[in-house]
Specification:
Layout lengths: L8 H25 L4 H18 L6 E6 L2 E4 L2 E2 L4 H12 L2 E6 L5 H13 L2 H12 L7 E5 L11 H11 L2 H4 L7 H13 L11 E3 L13 E3 L14 H17 L8 H10 L2 H15 L12 H19 L4 H31 L10 H9 L2 H8 L9 H13 L3 H12 L7 H13 L1 H6 L2 H17 L3 H20 L3 H17 L1 H11 L5 H10 L7 H7 L1 H13 L4 H14 L1 H13 L2 H14 L1 H12 L4 H14 L4 H8 L8 H9 L7 H8 L8 H15 L5 H9 L10 H14 L1 H11 L3 H5 L26 E7 L2 E11 L2 E6 L8 E8 L2 E11 L4 E8 L2 H27 L1
Helix pairs in contact: 1-2, 1-3, 1-4, 4-5, 8-10, 8-11, 9-10, 9-11, 9-12, 9-13, 12-13, 12-14, 16-17, 18-21, 20-21, 20-22, 21-22, 21-23, 22-23, 22-25, 24-26, 26-27, 26-28, 26-29, 28-29, 29-30, 29-31, 30-32, 32-33, 33-35, 34-35, 35-37, 36-37, 37-38
Length: 894
């Protein structure tokens, strides 16, 4: 038979990595489409081929394990991509430490594996895999669960070989007694037997693996127990626990590099132990060897056994009341130092085992966590409500409070957290420092309690910061203060936020430098946008928000102005106006200062609010400032003023007319017509009579006529009538579009007279049907529609020419004043364009102001258009309106 080809290690890793990636994809396909879908079957074939390739790399197959969120190939981490991490997480969640694939693996067996993976939830995956694979004859795939020791020799056969291969020579250097209490019992029994056992003072009892009597062998267990009653052990003492740990250290250090231990040395070490330590050692070893240690099914290693003794002693001492909780911490530190040597003996062993996906605890804080877990609930409650609660590490406080909250014991959780915070005032500096650190780590839990708790702690921290000038204390206290303030901001607890600002103001009086350092970290000003937005969602100002804004009036005023400019509903805009008034004069004065001195972009944001709150100031300042702004900035300011909807805005716009860009003038005249400002009548009459040198004069004249009609200016009736009726010899004197606008205006001013004019004017009903709309205050929108808008049933195309290029435009909404649509290309069009609307062989030409919207959308407002083109546009809008009505009627009948 030909020898199978063995690939290089790098090829082996690449093949296994490719297989793991394909397997992850295969499992997703099966979950989405099922196992019989063509995508799943194709992916299955590919994954099986990659598995076969990977199996050719080694006679023993390969072990695919997981540890630390990474996939391991025979204990060596593979390159970690998203697919590998995803598969590693799935295995870890299901409690699978590794899967061994041998050369006996068959397609049928692999198919069972895939189906079990795809059909199982993580909690049931391990059991489902076992049941799916154990009845197959080949046993080519073995699944190992996460545990310290294999259940039996047959099950661990392959894994142990691979583990030994990975550990190399290190495994031989570690005495088997160091990994198994049974072996150590045999070793101690042998050492005792060198002099008959009597000199050490213990009898012997040989027990088998099941716990019964027996002679024992290499597979059995030997144990020596004292004559003391094991069911009622004597209270532990620190010197006894230290004696056991030091004994384990001695024999570990002596025999670390020997495969077998020296019984004579062990005998001497036993003789040096305190008398009671003998009993403690044998009781602990016997209990561990009997597989009943801490409810575990497997015997622990000796490091874990020693840690158990240390924790048991600490808990018993605490429960008896022999030591206070702060002394417990010192005791644990002493015991931990003694355990360090024993841990170091197994460090290299643990690292290798960790790479193989076998979990081994080596955390520095393991004793403290184990101690707290062993303390009964009544003990936890007692210590957390004691004056020494600050000694408890925050993670332990959190674990107990989380349990209380899960059980709906909110009152007790509140009481514990409140009491823990009182250590801020503790006379001992160490207590204050630890409490400050704990509060920082527990801030999210404090945020889940009643709001009053954070408020009271912020006051307490503030008081302490004003009296404790220690650099270390101030660092920790200020960190806790900042963390709680941030938690209050996150949870929109404005009363607590205001409390933090008030406390900060008091700190500033005593320690300005500290206040300057803390204020930016609280980050209230950076979250004002989020705070102010609460007003738009709620008609009632949330409790505490007004006080927060009063403490930051300048930034608050700017943010209110920004959000006011984004309002679309009148009710929402009125809330922001009322909010600014409640914040007070400081906020309003800041907006005035911004209008006078800041850049155009900043000043524009204030125009809307100031038009509602201080029109005289705006009339005095804005006309001169707006003269210096470009067309886009003037357009933005005019829109702000129009949306603000102040009754007196007509006077303001009138004052600005002479300083506006010619393309902005039609929009401004339109806005005057949407107000109740009769003071503008004289200027509108001048514009209607064409006494304006602007380049947009014909279109501006029509806009002025429409404004006179909207305002119902009686003094304009004669001028408007002349526009409708004046003739030359054979034709009308004025353009038809101007006459239509004048007829519609007369209809508003004097309906009776308008009937006669219209009857003699030669107008069609279709022409007069499309006209300017009157302002409607009851619709609730801040932006009033000026003309009736239609949505074309058939797409209307056009082109927009700007200084940046030519764009194809599809119009989706259309009116006499402009429209909305979408364009091609990603670059912005600019602020104005020449728009050509295609109407077969004809085109409507206009100059428009462009406003960009999201996803390629744009809106157009007509800034200038020839009157002939406006007549074409009027007909287009009318035709589209009729088409929409017909289409709607058909849809209803259908």
């Amino acid at each position: 038979m030909a020898t199978p080809q063995t690939l290089a290690p790098s090829d082996k890793q690449s093949a296994a990595c490719a297989f793991a990636r394909s397997l992850n994809i295969l499992l997703k396909h099966v979950k989405l489409y099922g196992s019989n879908h063509k995508r799943s079957t194709a992916q299955f074939d590919q994954t099986w081929a990659e598995l076969v390739t990977a199996l050719r790399t080694s006679e023993a197959g390969f072990l695919l394990g997981v540890a630390g969120g990474k996939l391991l190939l025979d204990g060596v981490p593979l390159e970690s991509g998203p697919a590998e991490r995803s598969f590693a997480h799935l295995m870890s969640t299901a409690g699978i430490s590794s899967m061994h694939f041998s050369r006996k693996t068959t397609p049928e067996e692999f198919d069972h594996l895939v189906k079990a993976f795809a059909a199982s939830k993580p909690a049931a995956l391990l059991e489902n895999l076992k049941s799916a694979l154990e009845n197959l004859p080949t046993h080519g795939i073995r699944v190992n669960e996460i545990r310290f020791v294999a259940r039996d020799a047959a099950e661990a056969d392959v894994a142990s070989k691979l583990t030994a291969s990975a550990l190399g020579g290190v495994a031989g250097q570690l005495g088997s007694w160091l990994k198994d209490p049974r072996k150590l019992l045999q070793l101690i029994s042998a050492a005792s037997g060198t002099k008959g056992g009597g000199e050490i003072g213990f009898g012997s009892l040989m027990v088998g693996p099941g716990g019964g009597s027996g002679s024992g062998d290499s597979a059995g267990t030997a144990a020596v127990v004292s004559g003391n009653d094991a069911t009622t052990p004597a209270p532990l003492k620190e010197e006894d626990v230290l004696g056991v740990i030091r004994f384990l250290n001695q024999i570990g250090n002596k025999n670390e590099k020997q495969e077998t231990a020296d019984p004579v040395f062990v005998q001497h070490a036993l003789q040096e132990m305190p008398a009671n330590a003998h009993d403690l050692l044998y009781q602990a070893l016997f209990k561990a060897a009997a597989n009943s240690f801490e409810g575990e099914h497997e015997a622990p290693d000796l490091v874990k056994l020693a840690e158990h003794l240390a924790i048991r002693f600490a808990v018993e001492s605490f429960e008896r009341g022999d030591v206070k909780i702060d002394a417990i911490q010192q005791m644990i530190e002493r015991l931990s130092k003694e355990l360090d040597s024993l841990r170091n003996i197994l460090n290299e062993h643990e690292d290798r085992m960790g790479k193989l996906g076998i979990l081994v605890e080596t955390h520095a804080d393991i004793l403290d966590r184990q101690f707290w877990a062993a303390v009964p609930e009544w003990g936890k409650k007692k210590v957390l409500l004691s004056p020494d609660c600050w000694c408890i590490p925050p993670r332990n406080v959190r674990s107990y409070v989380d349990i209380l909250l899960d059980r709906k014991y909110e009152e007790l959780a509140f009481k514990i957290l409140q009491h823990y915070s009182t250590a801020i005032d503790n006379p001992e500096a160490e207590a204050r420092r630890k409490a400050a650190t704990g509060i920082s780590e527990l801030a999210d839990l404090y945020g889940r309690m009643d709001n009053r708790l954070i408020q009271s702690i912020l006051m307490r921290l503030g008081r302490q910061l004003t009296v404790d000038y220690s650099e270390e204390s101030q660092t920790l206290l200020s960190a806790a203060f900042v963390r709680l303030s941030q938690e209050a901001s996150t949870r929109k607890d404005f009363v607590a936020v205001e409390q933090s600002l008030a406390t900060l103001a008091r700190i500033e009086q005593n320690n300005p430098q500290l206040a300057r350092d803390v204020r930016p970290r609280i980050a209230v000003e950076s979250r004002l946008r989020e705070f102010v937005s609460e007003v738009s969602k709620n008609p009632i100002v949330p409790a505490g928000l007004l006080e927060v804004l009063k403490r930051t009036p300048a930034k608050a005023a700017e943010e209110i102005a920004v959000q006011f400019g984004h309002c679309s509903r009148r009710e929402e805009a009125n809330r922001f106006v009322a909010l600014l008034m409640q914040v007070g004069p400081a906020a309003l004065n800041h907006l005035r200062e911004v209008m006078r001195t800041r850049s155009a972009s900043e000043a524009i944001l204030t125009t809307g609010l100031l038009s509602c709150l201080d029109m005289p100031m705006l009339v005095a300042e804005l006309p001169e400032r707006i003269r210096q702004w470009n067309r886009q900035q003037q357009d933005a300011a005019m829109r702000q003023i129009a949306c603000a909807g102040a009754e007196e805005r007509g006077e303001l716009i009138l004052a600005m007319l002479d300083n506006l860009d010619p393309l902005i003038l039609p929009q401004a005249v339109d806005d005057i017509g949407m107000t109740r400002s009769y003071l503008a009548a004289g200027r509108l009459l001048d514009l209607a009579a064409a006494q304006c040198p602007a380049p947009t004069a014909p279109y501006l004249q029509v806009k002025a006529i429409e404004a006179l009609g909207r305002l119902r200016i009686g003094g304009a009736e004669e001028l408007l009538t002349n526009f409708v009726s004046e003739r030359h010899l054979l034709t009308w004197k004025h353009p038809r579009e101007l006459r239509i606008a004048a007829a519609q205006a007369v209809e508003r001013v004097n309906p009776e007279r308008a009937r006669h004019l219209i009857a003699k004017g030669g107008f069609s009903a279709e022409e007069l049907k499309i006209g300017p709309l009157d302002p409607v205050q009851s619709n609730g929108w801040v932006r009033q529609r000026r003309y009736q808008r239609v949505s074309p049933e058939v797409a209307i195309h056009g082109t927009a020419t700007t200084n940046r290029g030519v764009y194809d435009v599809t119009l989706e909404k259309l009116s006499l004043g402009g429209g909305m649509g979408s364009r091609t290309g990603r670059t912005t069009m600019g602020t104005d364009a020449l728009l050509d609307i295609n109407l077969g062989l004809r085109r409507v030409h206009s100059r428009v102001l462009v406003r960009e919207a999201a996803a390629g959308g744009v809106s157009f407002e007509i800034a200038d258009i020839a009157l002939d083109d406006r007549s074409k546009l009027r007909k287009l809008v009318h035709d589209q309106m009729i088409a929409s009505q017909v289409a709607a009627a058909k849809r209803v009948s259908a």
